[in-house]
């Protein structure tokens, strides 16, 4: 599988994350090429990973066996149509996209009836602890295995049975780091109001979150059981949890995730 030439169209943060994971897993740098208008980003990728670079999307696409579309959704139509016009032979190649909000049907209107994999990585991919939801269209088992290898260097890969689940995984993992950051921000603010410095409050919140996440990762116990282990009835934790429950935390989380799904569905119609 490492013989495939992989072209990245776009050289932003997600391209960097994927390439870093590939190199870490032993993928040959000479079989990776990145294309981008900005030479500064390309030079940084070449210096850090030893990959090939070009400012011409068509050159990269023509060399590739697999084309990873890593540009902003608003630019995707122009990029795809240019590839189809200037390199029509790419219709036979495997396309992978990391852009949110664009359904398979939209890509086929720009590229033709291509083999396409939609992916939805989240930001912890930048530290190798991400989750990537993946949906394949017209792809072989070999191609699925190859794409899994591209993203496994960034963390967990989750294959989806249907395209609609992309919107669900956006709510569950794609947007979710921000939920935790928001909760941690609120805890830090309370810590500061209790007299701790901003730095001390942040450090304690981060370490507690890291510890809790590590405990859950090392245990098969349900979250509810882990919570119960530190929630003695009538104790301080019990009072805190009851306050959250009475304030409707569970419904708030459900409403927030539903709002993310609704927005993803709306974006699919307008982008």
Summarize the structure.
Helices cover 56% and strands 14% of the residues.
Task: Please characterize this protein's 3D structure.
The mean pLDDT is 97. The protein is built from 12 helices and 8 strands. The protein has 2 domains: 6-170, Rossmann fold (3-Layer(aba) Sandwich), CATH 3.40.50; 176-268, ProC C-terminal domain-like (ProC C-terminal domain-like fold), CATH 1.10.3730.10. The chain has an 8-stranded mixed β-sheet with strand order 3-2-1-4-5-6-7-8, sandwiched between helices. 56% of the residues lie in helices and 14% in strands. The longest helix has 22 residues, at 249-270. The protein has helices at 13-24, 39-49, 57-63, 73-86, 104-111, 141-152, 165-174, 176-193, 198-217, 223-229, 236-246, 249-270; strands spanning 6-9, 32-35, 52-54, 66-69, 94-97, 115-121, 130-137, 155-159. Strand 5, helix 5 (104-111) and strand 6 form a beta-alpha-beta unit. The protein starts with 5 loop residues before the first strand and ends with a helix. By secondary structure, it is of the alpha/beta class. It is elongated.
